[in-house]
Design goal:
The chain is of the alpha+beta class. It folds into two domains: about 1-375, no CATH class; about 390-500, no CATH class. The chain is built from 14 helices and six strands. The chain has helices at about 1-25, 35-55, 70-95, 100-115, 120-130, 135-165, 175-200, 205-230, 235-255, 265-290, 300-325, 330-355, 375, 405-410; strands at about 390-395, 415-425, 425-435, 450-455, 465-475, 490-500. The chain has a six-stranded antiparallel β-barrel. β2 and β3 (about 425-435) form a beta hairpin. α3 runs antiparallel to α7, α4 runs antiparallel to α6 (about 135-165) and α6 packs across α7.
Amino acid sequence: MYVVLGALVVLLLMQLTGDLRLARSEARGTPLWRMPLGRAGLFFAFLLVGPWLFVHVSGMEGILAGNGGWLFVASVGLSAMISYTWYRYLTWLDVFERERIWAELLTFVMACGSTLLVFPITAWLRGATGMALTGDLWDDLVYSVVAIGLVEEVVKLLPYLLIWRLTRQVDEPFDHLLYGSIAALGFAFMENTLYLESTRLTAVTGRALLASVAHMFDTSIVCYSVALALHRKRPWVPALLLGLVLASLAHGFYDLWLLAPGRPVVLTIVFFLGSIQLWVIMKNNLLNLSPRFHPGIKLASAMFRYRIINGMLAIFLLAWVLVFLLDGRERAMGMLLGGWQLMAAMLVFLALSFSNFVLVRGYLAPVRPASNLFRLFLPIAKHGDDLSGRRVTLLKGLRGNSGGTEAIHADLPVTGELIGRMVVKGDADWYLFRPQGPSFAGSPRGGAYLLKPAVDLDLAGTGQRAVFLLLGLREGWKEGPGGVPAQDLFRVGRFLGSLV
């Protein structure tokens, strides 16, 4: 576990180095502590020091012991913080049209109420079918998929369906996933409260980092299916039913390995890691399909990872302090020392993966997890920084370019704008490039090309030189769901250029 955690921390520090460099270049003399990244760093430092000092210096050990009411209040408060932190993450993604708060709050409240339907429905199912948890793998699988997965997914869908069908709030593809996930957070709030109270708050890591995310992912399967069907102008009811079946299977498989001692819980962890990758792709795809998409609108995704880390760390350390107040220092230290490695590793993994988005108008990436098992244990790889809107000057051609480019070389140097991201064979680091001023002789489509830096460029590095790959676009090309078809492209060559 220490090796995995160390590798994840190294990846996070690499990201932090680049983010700090960019923040300083954009701040233009503003002190670091006044920048969002600097404030996040100060809050992180407070989280590491403040709770530790309180536990070891305050002398308030066990001050709330013997009062059961405080345990319930603490469970409700922590559950609310978990749901709110993930809700804020969802709203950070909703950049093209922000939703009305009343609709989001109504969805959450309805989900809290609809959660109560689980108990009578499950009791009726058990009485009518005789299904139960027996310890037998097949019996437990059927129970997990039907009595747990299907019932809970139906209950979570009700608020989303009501908001979608009875209001005008769900008017872009991402809204389906947003309201479905908010409904899942309402369900998770009720469930988390029960689990936290029954475990005297020690289940906080699993509820915040695993269960709540899994609930959002399962519901998103249904919402994603509906959103795609509507985008493709197909009937949404069959898509909803298919998504419900898949969500129930996913939910049941996740729970199956946790329901009986001796089962390989690692299967749930592996499945969860794959779910993270799928959920990022689903969110990214629906953002790409927004009718309000504009390449000038960018996600401030660099800050996502630090906000997620600070939010979840605050929840965990508050739970630690509350255990200290309720049950004393010994139990609090046991909670901290017994689970901090898994909590830290999972938190960094989620923060890195959930801050990785590449906005490309209309592009639908294949919804599938990593192609090999080892890749599941790594966070989603970050694409290069979004250079949309930047200008590039091509200075000279390099050796090895194909023949017939002499006229192009004669026009160099030439400056053009990177209009927006494009996808070529699954690679989203290409840009539509339109030369301005002198245009390339004989260029297709009035000077339209695809340009890609051969290495990731630092957004802060105006004037930095790099090698760029240039492709030409044939007459009449059309971008499809998979990006630009290979038959619409031809190779031009490699050029030395610089960001302007």
